[in-house]
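A.,

Following up on our hallway conversation. Structure tokens first:
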């Protein structure tokens, strides 16, 4: 479980968003993804082996419609000896 590291990154992200006056816009994106089922709320107590995927903001100042986006880092690892979520996926056949 990488809960501690992910919480630390989230706290840093929140401070950055507040400093740049983007917190509410980012929160709206997260809420929209929550309503669409893209993300889910973390349980208070983990029920098994869970991985919290860190995320960050991407700002595109030249975009006409959506100038703020979210990037999820599924290549993040808890430690060098642990696999990332990306490492656990079957790549499938070459296309």
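Then the amino acids I'd put at each of the 95 positions:
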């Amino acid at each position: 479980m990488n809960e501690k590291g992910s919480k630390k990154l989230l706290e840093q992200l929140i401070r950055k968003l507040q400093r740049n006056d983007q917190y509410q816009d980012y929160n709206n994106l997260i809420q929209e993804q929550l309503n669409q089922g893209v993300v889910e709320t973390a349980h208070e107590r983990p029920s098994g082996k869970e991985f919290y995927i860190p995320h960050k903001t991407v700002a595109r100042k030249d975009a006409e419609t959506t100038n703020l986006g979210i990037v999820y880092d599924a290549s993040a690892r808890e430690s060098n000896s642990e696999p990332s979520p990306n490492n656990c996926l079957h790549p499938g056949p070459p296309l």
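Residues 3-41+50-79 form one domain. Curious whether your intuition agrees with the design.

B.
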